[in-house]
């Protein structure tokens, strides 16, 4: 299980185990007078391309959960086949937008000292690129 603020991800190895965990979540929600958000609650069946998607209909209480091809958790995109290329495209698009903002600021101010530009780059662009990367796996340096 992954928990962050008001987000919850339930991971399971089997369909039966997942439904059991969803039933436990529903019981907890009932006991605490809370409900799940139908629009944000989905199922992703992670599997190889050669393996068919589960046909099981999962529910949490009275809510039937949709099975979807991808899910975004804390800004990271996970596809049912764990295709890193999809995540890379999302990260590249976000980094491109951030770089556009840095360049716009640079031009709008008629230039910036190198140190200021690199601080903006590191805080806006590099942080976008490296978000979600395992510590130590990705690094950058300036020449």
Radius of gyration: 20 Å
Give the topology string: H per helix, E per strand.
EEHEEEEEHH
Low-confidence stretches: none
Structural class: alpha+beta
How many individual helices?
3
Domain count, please report it: 2
Strand order, sheet with most strands: 3-5-4
Protein name: Reverse transcriptase domain-containing protein
Domain Reverse transcriptase: 1-78
InterPro entries: DNA/RNA_pol_sf, RT_dom
Pfam families: RVT_1
Helix-strand layout with pairing:
Blueprint: E1 2-4, E2 7-9, H1 15-31, E3 42-43, E4 58-60, E5 63-67, E6 70-73, E7 76-79, H2 84-108, H3 114-130
Parallel strand pairs: 3-5
Antiparallel strand pairs: 1-2, 4-5, 6-7
Helix pairs in contact: 2-3
What does this structure look like?
Residues 1-78 form the Reverse transcriptase domain. The protein is an alpha+beta fold. It has two domains: 2-68, no CATH class; 83-141. Helix content is 41%, strand content 17%. A three-stranded mixed β-sheet has the order 3-5-4. Strands 1-2 form a two-stranded antiparallel sheet. A hairpin with a 2-residue loop joins strand 4 (58-60) and strand 5 (63-67). Helix 2 packs antiparallel against helix 3 (114-130). The radius of gyration is 20 Å and the shape is elongated. The N and C termini lie far apart (42 Å). The mean pLDDT is 89.
């Amino acid at each position: 299980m992954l928990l962050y603020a008001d987000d919850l991800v339930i991971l399971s190895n089997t369909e039966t185990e997942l439904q059991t965990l969803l039933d436990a979540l529903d019981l907890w929600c009932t006991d605490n007078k809370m409900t799940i958000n139908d629009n944000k609650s989905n199922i992703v069946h992670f599997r190889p391309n050669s393996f068919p998607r589960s046909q099981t209909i999962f529910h949490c209480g009275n809510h039937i959960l949709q099975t979807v091809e991808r899910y975004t958790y804390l800004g990271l995109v996970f596809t049912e086949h764990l295709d890193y290329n999809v995540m890379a495209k999302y990260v590249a698009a976000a980094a491109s937008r951030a770089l556009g903002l840095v360049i716009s600021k640079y031009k709008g101010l008629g230039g910036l000292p190198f140190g200021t530009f690199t601080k903006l780059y590191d805080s806006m662009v590099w942080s976008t690129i490296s978000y979600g990367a395992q510590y130590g796996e990705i690094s950058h340096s300036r020449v």
